[in-house]
């Protein structure tokens, strides 16, 4: 009886957030190797406080706008009982992880914990980027054309990095907090460019016409003004189900966004009809999700 109890004790809790599956695959692979418990952050934050089980805690998330998704900040604010734990973070990114793991370390420190290792994993980019910046900046933000061979290489490279990460976490070693373009990101922070420039640019790209005093990070929730459905929409409701933060309601059989968005792009990327567009710039863009993840893997209801 005592042995059974021991066998089912959780030693590692791995919390993840993911819109198109890259971070879910990373979290799932680590959880499998460590025989850890995998928990979706959108479910965990529904509780008043989060008490992770076991002595090891992992947090896996995608990089958003060179930083943390808002939901990660909210999740860490709810974490309790972490000072004694071995904590690691993993971010997936498309171009550059910046110093998002340093932001994670700061947030964890504010809760009395310590980020012992932070790993970056390059994965296919799932957001919009400018294509013809000089020609027409604000109209040029399109989905990226992903090269299948390059995607396969990234999936393959992840499997190689998994072994390296596993050795560090298993032995609870202190690892590097991996960053890129640190000097640039620190300068951007120092000059406050996210508040003075980045916020204005992105809200314009997202067709937000009002005014707001909120911070750049908070303004992300308003970027769903950029979403619209087109005449391919058949009212199936998949977008409502896949949204991790209940930000979509159906009205007259069509989605209506509620302006507390995470910008995870799950609604746009998983719509079976490819009927969701972002600022008229995504009509011809090919949709993406990680091939090893299904829609039901990502529905957190
Ligand atoms: C709103 C948003 C912002 C993003 N910003 C960045 C970024 O600043 N740097 C980067 O390298 N990738 C960025 N990406 C790409 C994602 O980090 C990357 O594709 C990630 O692997 C997606 O993970 P997921 O499939 O788990 O959602 C962004 C994606 C989204 C949706
Ligand atoms: S998932 Fe696509 S087709 Fe289905 S309701 Fe949403 S927008 Fe319409
Ligand atoms: S509305 Fe779309 S982009 Fe925003 S959080 Fe929901 S699924 Fe993600």
Strand % is: 15-25%
Determine the structural class based on helices, strands and strand pairing: alpha/beta
Task: Note the total helix count.
Answer: 13
**Within the largest sheet, what's the order of strands?**
2-1-3-4-5
Number of strands: 11
Low-confidence stretches: 1-6
The average pLDDT score comes to 93
* Cα Rg: 19 Å
Order of helices and strands: HEHEHEHEHEEHEHHHHEHEEHEH
Ligand species = flavin mononucleotide, iron/sulfur cluster
The N- to C-terminal Cα distance equals 34 Å
Overall geometric form: globular
Largest sheet: 5 strands, parallel
Q: Into which percent range does the helicity of residues fall?
A: 25-40%
Describe this entry's structure for a reader.
By secondary structure, this protein is of the alpha/beta class. Helix content is 37%, strand content 17%. The chain is built from 13 helices and 11 strands. The strands form 4 sheets. It has a 5-stranded parallel sheet, with helices on both faces. It has a two-stranded antiparallel sheet with strand order 6-7. Helix 2 (22-34) links the parallel strand 1 (12-16) and strand 2 (37-40). Helix 2 (22-34) runs parallel beside helix 7. It is globular. Bound molecules: flavin mononucleotide and iron/sulfur cluster (2 copies). One iron/sulfur cluster (SF4) binds next to helix 12.
């Amino acid at each position: 009886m005592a042995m059974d109890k021991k066998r089912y004790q959780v030693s590692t809790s791995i919390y993840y957030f993911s819109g198109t599956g890259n971070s879910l695959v990373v979290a799932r692979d680590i959880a499998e190797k460590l025989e850890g418990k995998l928990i979706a952050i959108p479910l965990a934050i529904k509780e008043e406080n989060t008490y992770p089980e076991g002595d090891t805690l992992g947090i896996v998330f995608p990089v958003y706008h060179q930083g943390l998704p808002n939901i990660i900040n909210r999740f860490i604010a709810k974490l309790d009982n972490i000072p004694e734990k071995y904590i690691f973070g993993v971010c997936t990114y498309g171009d550059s992880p910046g110093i998002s793991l340093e932001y994670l370390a700061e947030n964890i420190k504010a809760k009395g914990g310590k980020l012992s290792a932070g790993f970056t994993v390059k994965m296919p980019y799932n957001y919009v980027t400018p294509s013809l910046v000089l020609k027409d900046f604000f109209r040029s933000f399109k989905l990226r054309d992903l090269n299948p061979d390059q995607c396969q290489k990234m999936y393959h490279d992840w499997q190689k990095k998994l072994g390296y990460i596993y050795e560090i976490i298993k032995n609870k070693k202190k690892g590097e907090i991996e960053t890129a373009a640190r000097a640039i990101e620190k300068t951007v922070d120092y000059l406050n460019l996210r508040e003075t420039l980045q916020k204005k640019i992105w809200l314009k790209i997202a067709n937000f016409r009002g005014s707001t005093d909120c911070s750049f990070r908070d303004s992300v929730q308003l970027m769903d003004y950029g979403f619209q459905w087109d005449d391919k929409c058949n009212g199936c409701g998949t977008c409502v189900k896949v949204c991790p933060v209940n930000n979509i309601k159906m009205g007259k059989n069509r989605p209506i966004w509620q302006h507390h968005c995470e910008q995870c792009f799950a609604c746009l990327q998983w719509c079976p009809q490819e009927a969701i567009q972002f600022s008229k710039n995504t009509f011809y863009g090919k949709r993406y999700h990680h091939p090893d993840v299904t829609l039901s893997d990502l529905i957190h209801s």
